[in-house]
Backbone:
């Protein structure tokens, strides 16, 4: 009888431990957040009709120390940047690219992230409108895969240090084509009567619940403070 009680007690303790571990794992899963966006219009609000939209997914890590970015986009096979080595590349906006902008509207500090289907990227920190503070900053991770000849998927990890405090607005863009066939697309586009594409029109950005994706804090990230 005593042994049976000990066995039952040990089984009960084991069940409690397992249940607690499962609870912690489920809690960690629910702490993460995912947001999805589709670029369905040209820069001047004209609907895109000749290809599927660029799809963007923003996700948090369990500790919310990095922003996870996934881009699932059509591949137009534009000429690649001259450098075959992946990594930071200047003036990447001149190539086939998807761009993400995160804005703190209270300070007009914003970060511009550009991603190429060839493994290149560009990070710029800006103030007000187009006033460049830093560029060519490194990312800890950016990889591209090609599931098919007309599709690419890029995945990046963006550390907290690159973001200003109080990020609350967002916009995204995609560019492809050459010369007179250069095409500019926008998540939150300009009105139809706009004269030309301008991705730095901060008034067009829309609200983003960024705190649910990243522990942003009250201060700008380290890259903003250290020159």
Residues:
């Amino acid at each position: 009888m005593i042994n049976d009680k000990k066995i039952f007690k040990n089984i009960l303790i084991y069940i409690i431990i397992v249940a607690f571990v499962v609870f912690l794992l489920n809690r960690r899963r629910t702490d993460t957040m995912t947001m999805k966006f589709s670029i369905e219009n040209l820069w001047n609000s004209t609907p895109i009709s000749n290809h599927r939209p660029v799809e963007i997914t923003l996700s948090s890590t369990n500790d919310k120390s990095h922003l996870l970015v996934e881009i699932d986009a059509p591949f137009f096979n534009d000429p690649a940047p001259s450098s075959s080595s992946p990594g930071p590349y200047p003036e990447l906006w001149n190539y086939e690219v998807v761009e993400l902008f995160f804005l703190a509207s209270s300070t007009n500090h914003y970060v511009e992230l550009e991603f190429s289907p060839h493994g290149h990227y560009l990070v710029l920190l800006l103030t007000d409108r187009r006033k460049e503070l830093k560029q060519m900053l490194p990312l800890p991770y950016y990889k591209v895969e090609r599931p098919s000849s007309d599709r690419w998927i890029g995945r990046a990890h963006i550390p907290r240090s690159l973001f200003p405090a109080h990020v609350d607005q967002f916009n995204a863009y995609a560019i492809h084509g050459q010369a007179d066939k250069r095409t500019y697309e926008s998540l939150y586009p300009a009105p139809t009567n706009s004269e030309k594409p301008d991705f730095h029109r901060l008034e067009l950005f829309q609200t983003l619940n960024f705190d649910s994706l990243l522990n942003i804090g009250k201060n700008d990230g380290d890259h903003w403070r250290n020159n």
Notes: Helices lie at 2-31, 222-225. The domain at 33-225 is CATH 2.60.40.1190 (Immunoglobulin-like).
